[in-house]
Amino acid sequence: MFEVLITACLAAAPAQCSTFELRLKLYDDIGQCARHAQSDVVRWADHKPQWRIARWACTAPGETI
Question: Is residue 26 very low, low, confident or very high in pLDDT (cuts 50, 70, 90)?
């Protein structure tokens, strides 16, 4: 199983960054995650306008980026 991790920085303080786990959906394999996760990332960003995405990645649960 794979999940999406997002590293995002506050728009008002770009040096203040955090990593968020998207647990909305777990993907069966890395290819499925890579193909479909971008829409989850966009949806997350739409709901968190104070954050700017620096990067995102598909990872196994418990891994970091």
Answer: confident
d(CA 43, CA 1): 21
Torsion of CA 38, 44, 47, 52, to 10 degrees: -80
How far apart CA 18 and CA 30 sit, in angstroms, is 23
Q: Measured between alpha carbons, how far is 38 from 20 in angstroms, rounded to an integer?
A: 15
Q: Are 51 and 9 in contact (CB under 8 A)?
A: yes
pLDDT in tens, 27-61: 999 999 999 999 999 999 999 999 999 999 999 98
Neighbours of 58 (CB within 10 A): 21
